[in-house]
Amino acid sequence: MGSEITELVGKNKPNDAGLTVQQERFAREYVADRDPIKAYAAAGYASKDASTDRKKANDILALPIMQRRIAQLENSGNIAETISREEYHNKILATYEAAMADGDYAAANKAMELIGKAMNFLIEEKRTLNINATVPSDKAAKVESIKRLGKLAGVTIDLQDETPAR
Length: 166
Description:
mainly alpha
């Protein structure tokens, strides 16, 4: 059991959380995917066979130090700490490709929507046009109509009365 723990904990110098670089990667990948086998492979652990990988991935996941780190990452509230923008994009792109291969066009469309949002392609811009003008005082009714129309169009209109100064 001692050598298994050494293998599970790793031989590298631990970080501030007490994990090796490889374990930290495992924790971050697990938080991103919630799949211990994918996290195990992404962290660079040697792959012997699926059964061994599954057992070792679950053994690593069960370590109290790993559970604490996963909880820290999940509670951090900062997605940038757990997944980079590039990793996010790649995961959504992989989802899109898998959905297209499976003929699941609704999932593929949703993945493309998420990619578009992440790349700011689907941001609706609201522009404001401010109009400042001076209007004769006898046109007050028309000014109010123009202001109401402007408000409907999302335009701010500031019209000043042309009453002469005394």
